[in-house]
Amino acid sequence: xxxxxxxxxxxxxxxxxxxxxxxxxxxxxxxxxxxxxxxxxxxxxxxxxxxxxxxxxxxxxxxxxxxxxxxxxxxxxxxxxxxxxxxxxxxxxxxxxxxxxxxxxxxxxxxxxxxxxxxxxxxxxxxxxxxxxxxxxxxxxxxxxxxxxxxxxxxxxxxxxxxxxxxxxxxxxxxxxxxxxxxxxxxxxxxxxxxxxxxxxxxxxxxxxxxxxxxxxxxxxxxxxxxxxxxxxxxxxxxxxxxxxxxxxxxxxxxxxxxxxxxxxxx
Length: 267
What we know:
This protein is of the alpha/beta class. The protein has ten helices and ten strands.
């Protein structure tokens, strides 16, 4: 639910009125009562990754109601994984899917119809044309556009049976628009707002959110390591979201024309 400072920006509403409206709405929705923990209904479902070992590592596959970030260096297979999940979610539940559709938010123009066709037909024996018709794609050109289309994706959850939202990639546009240490606070505030919006969508519609991300090299004493772009965005996930989100560093060698391989287990 939106904070009162956003609601108060509506013409004719002040801070006190906005706060009163929000508190009354929470009461009406039953959001102001404590409940016993054993009454909590998590209603978690799993989407197969196409790899039995990766499913095992993730505890069954990609979970609904949660955000999962996959990060790795260039050409490590992040987009291949995103394409694969966009196909596997369309499988029936008996085969590890949800029989649902996908909203694909493409910030780097890496979405490939041909790759989807290959994965659908060669790996899973699905009709490529039907699979493509169940993927709703949006090419993104700015961070503000990205936020707008995340909100638009919520509409698809209501009207088009979308149970998976892919953001490929999360930080690419923010990284180019918010440059320098002086812009870090604004960038992290924008990122925090975006992540909270995605978390709310995931929880409200019990859909899975898959985020891909780039990495940067950070020095740790005498050694270096690849860390996900976004500064302390991992802290945002751990501290701000109601659900714990899986983190999956992706090794450089994992790629096979979008078809996941069992070598994932060695990562």
